[in-house]
Amino acid sequence: MVRSAQKKFVIYSAVIVLLIITVIFIASCIIQERATNHSISISLHNAQKYFEDNDHDNPTPGSLFAQYTMSPNDKTPFINECVYDKHHFEGINLQSLINKIAKECETSTTGNVDNVYFSVKISADVYMVYAVDATPILEVYHSNIIKALIFLSILYVLLVLLLLWLSSIVFKPIVDNFQRQKQFVSDASHELKTPLSIINASVDVIASKDENNKWIDNVKAQTSRMNVLITDMLSLAKLDEGKITIHKENFNLSDVILECALPFEAMVYENGKTIEYMVSPDIKVNTDKNSVKMLVNILLDNAVKYADENGKIIVYLNKVKNKIIFSIYNTGSNVPDKDSARIFERFYRADPSRSRDSGGSGLGLAIAKNLANGNKWKIYAKSKQCESMTITVIF
Length: 395
Hints:
The structure is a single chain. Helix 1 (2-53) packs antiparallel against helix 3 (135-209), helix 3 runs antiparallel to helix 4 and helix 7 (289-306) packs antiparallel against helix 9 (364-374). The chain is built from nine helices and twelve strands. By secondary structure, it is an alpha+beta fold. The relative contact order is 0.07.
């Protein structure tokens, strides 16, 4: 239980940290992109200003100026003049670049083609193109993004490792205390069995000499109740420690449920209640048979004890698609609707006086929950106060 809480703490914290780092990365990308666009805009503005104010023979690094007219026949650009920085535009296919720019100019006078950002001025039928090669600027941008991604990834891994270390420190006292509690329950339960057996034996001897003694009957009833409680405490301790071995096998679940229900029929009818079966035949399952029997017995015992006077119990089993659904319904429930899930808590009692009268230990449904978790079944309860209780298991 504590280990599960520790695992959830680490997972939730890691998800939160991941979200924060993702937001930081996105913000970093936005800032970098805006800075890059601003830098390109300045470079393009400076190149245009230079070509307009100076001789075109010595272009600034990465800049290009071209002047062309559109052919009236095929609407292709005819280059009249072109000056560019040969270092940045080495091996360039000038005609292909101008063709692409001319096509872009049909919808806009600014844009970019193959990392070449341009601005076009039109005077009569003459097109004047001012452009800069933004490849170096974009390389810096991409490099910064990759560096940020690597840095934040390493930071995330380190933070997760830190979370694991901190969680082990924070949860260690809780884990140790929980382990001591489980060990105490297990040891105390074992130790109590011996004196309880002696008390039972002694009471039986006294009862043989004095058969009609109500005090002896009270002692026997309470020792019997205490024996149930100790047995349930031992079962729960074993489940908590994972000492119950799960052995999967193929068997007929329908037959097992009906076999488990048979001994309860006498108790049902003696108490003026009724039991109905809605069990589909020949439903096969591959799971631990002993766990199934224990679970079915617990749920049937709970339903018989807590069904209202002259109430009804319904045992249901069916296969829906790939899911096997088993449920036990009983009329009458003292559990508030909002507390349906709490019935699996240890010693939870919606009506303490009634629970004592029924002889229950308050641990049966907690054992059922642990059995379901251990076998990876789903179990849940739905209460309608003063009406009914349904406990469902999905295999």
